[in-house]
Structures are given as structure tokens and as C-alpha cells.
Amino acid sequence: MPWAHVLASWPNLVEHLCDDFQYLQITALRRFRGDRRKMELYLAETHDLTVAEAREALDDWLTYTGSRLRAQIAA
Question: pLDDT of 8-66, one tens digit each?
């Protein structure tokens, strides 16, 4: 899922992010308002990752979640 789609759906995706990354807090994510850099830093800090690892985890999440959400819409 491209980041532009994330920005358009940020309020809805926040809950999905918290479901999939157990240490994220909804209130913190809402403050970021889709700022990818802040999201990567926060993910790294909360999940004991490097920023590069957090970026990769977020990319993987976007790929998986994008596919899952498209499948839900199509059904």
C-alpha cells in the first residue's frame, strides 16, 4: 500500500497498526498524523529495533495490510 493511501486512511489504519504492533499506542499514532519518519522512529523505540528494521517492518506491514484490505473491499 503506498504511503499516500496510508495518509488518506490514517485514522482507520491506526487501529490496525496497534493490533499488529503490540507496543504502539493509539494516542501517539494519532499525534503523528501519518508522518512516516516519526512513525518509523516510534516503531523502532517501542519494539527495540533500529530505524532501518522499523522501516522494513513497516514496509512489510504495508504490503500485507494493503493486500488484506483490498481483499476485504473486494469481498
Answer: 878 888 888 899 999 999 999 988 888 999 999 999 999 999 999 999 999 999 888 86
Instruction: Identify the sign of the CA torsion 33, 34, 40, 44.
Output: positive
Note down the domain range covering 20.
3-74
H helical segments located in 1-75: 3-8, 10-20, 26-32, 36-46, 51-74
CA-based nearest residue to 47, from 58, 37, 36: 58
Q: Cell numbers for 11, please give them.
A: 485514522
Q: What is the DSSP letter of 27?
A: H
Q: Report the number of distinct structural domains present in the chain.
A: 1
- Say what the pTM is: 0.81
